[in-house]
Write a structure and sequence with these properties.
With 236 residues, the protein is α/β, with parallel strands linked by helices. 34% of the residues lie in helices and 33% in strands.
Length: 236
């Protein structure tokens, strides 16, 4: 399910974009959950990074689209922003907030569907680069490259980055499956290491950033082989 938001103060344009998304669903066998907002101030109120795509009007009475986008980008660097405007000269400002593109009013369906295609392609790429952690208070979306290691902690799992430790429900095996093989590998039954951040291996310990983790005897041969392969030629 793709989470989409339409931020538009004109009812006619809001309805048109809604209809376009529903038409796109039918034609492309996708599924959207759509949230509607009449103004930028409305969407940024208690904003949480849950949307995949936001269609954002530029000219709105209470808060314009560019100001809204800056507020959104302060807490959500991953959501895809598409500006909707009747002024082509505004397009260049979209680069300031990493907007994917803009649609010029009145929006034709062909241009709309093309931009949604681009958005979904970019979204698919982002999903391979980011990891979402769920807990009782909501969720956190992390850049996979920033994860140092994952640790089993009784009935929970801890995900460590350089600046934070995040707690999530589930098992370390489930997290391992979601991370994929790539550059993650277990150094023992309780740790999954991101080999991007390995700086040293000495005896039965590996340095991952500032953390010193033990390498178990049963895992050492496979771990060292994976590490050698990663640094020896398969690094991406």
């Amino acid at each position: 399910m793709i989470q989409a938001a339409i931020v538009e103060d004109d009812f006619a344009t809001q309805g048109l974009l809604w209809d376009y998304l529903r038409r796109y669903e039918t034609e492309n066998h996708e599924a959207f959950e759509i949230a509607l907002f009449r103004d930028g101030a409305e969407i940024i109120r208690n904003y949480q990074p849950r949307f995949d795509i936001i269609l954002l009007d530029v000219q709105m009475e209470t808060m314009d689209g560019f100001t809204t986008a800056k507020h959104i980008r302060a807490v959500d660097e991953n959501v895809i922003l598409i500006f909707v405007t009747n002024m082509g000269q505004y397009a260049i400002k979209g680069y300031e907030v990493d907007a994917l593109s803009y649609l010029l009013k009145p929006v034709p369906y062909f241009a709309f569907s093309r931009e949604i295609n681009r958005s979904l392609q970019r979204l698919q790429k982002k999903k391979t680069e980011h990891f979402t952690l769920y807990n009782e208070n909501g969720f956190t979306r992390l850049d996979i490259i920033k994860i140092l290691y994952v640790e089993r902690d009784r009935h929970r799992v801890l995900v460590h980055t350089e600046t934070h430790t995040y707690s999530t429900v589930g098992t370390i095996k489930e997290i391992e499956a979601k991370l994929g093989s790539g550059h993650f590998f277990r150094c023992n039954s309780g740790y999954i290491v991101n080999m991007v951040h390995v700086t040293e291996v000495k005896d039965n310990f590996v340095m991952v950033g500032k953390y010193r983790l033990s390498i178990s005897r049963p895992k050492k041969k496979a771990f060292m082989a994976a590490l050698t392969d990663y640094f020896g030629g398969s690094r991406k």
